[in-house]
Amino acid sequence: MHSKANYYTHSEHNVGIPIEADGSIRVWFAERELLFAAEPREGYYVVSAEAEGPLARAKVITFLETYNSVEILSSEPLAAFEAFARQMKWVEAAGGVVESDRGEVVMISRNGRWDLPKGHREQGESFEECAAREAEEETGVKVAEVGRLLATTLHAYNIYGEWELKLTAWYVMRALSRQLTPQREEGIVRAEWVAPDCIEEQIKNSFPTIKKVFSAFSV
What pTM was estimated for this model as a whole? Predict the structure, then answer.
């Protein structure tokens, strides 16, 4: 499961940056939020990209160490995001919600949180192929079909001293089998089927990106 070595360029992906209806772009640092937007938002610590000039990654991360929600205010949110993204290693991944014929979904427990199977996209692999492969590797389930794209998310993290920015495409998948085997070498301690009426309780301690995926799944 090797990540791409490239840094961000706008043509590297075919799924697309998750741009909201108002043109804003959201990046998650665990549970802290970095928003690139054209209008100031209530509840955010606002930093003007035009007033500050080019925003160094280290400076933005310092803001996030103090504030849970930081907004980079710019007349061109996408351009501001791209300038920030180029300072980090760009990684593409896919995963999603694997559903049984009973309406149950597969969830995994990793690092003390309930999560969904996902992983890095390999060279030459489509996002759909990646989603199915990662679901099978991480949970042992057999995927019969990859369905619609639910959401795309962005999150950033520091691994071995290097900052990575990951674009993840999340799909609905249909399960062919019910047997589950957690991939323990990836830190997954449990994999289990979750009934539809238990999902809301199960994801209370999940990351915001996972909650976004389930919000799209329930529509």
Answer: 0.91
- 75-79 long-range Cβ contacts below 8 angstroms, 24+ apart: 75/38, 75/50, 76/38, 77/23, 77/24, 77/25, 77/36, 77/37, 77/38, 78/17, 78/19, 78/23, 78/25, 78/36
Listed range (7-16, 74-83, 89-98) with the worst mean pLDDT: 7-16
In this predicted structure, the answer to whether residue 3 has a pLDDT above a threshold of 90 is: no
Q: How far apart are CA 62 and CA 52, in angstroms?
A: 14
* φ, ψ at 95 (rounded to 5°): -175, -155
Burial class from Cβ neighbours inside 10 Å (0-12, 13-18, 19+) for residue 142 reads: middle
Q: At 114, give phi and psi (nearest 5°).
A: -85, 135
Of 104, 208, 114, the C-alpha closest to 156 is 208
Q: Which domains does the chain have, with CATH numbers?
A: 25-85 (no CATH), 92-217 (3.90.79.10)
Whether the Cβ atoms of residue 146 and residue 131 lie closer than 8 Å to each other: yes
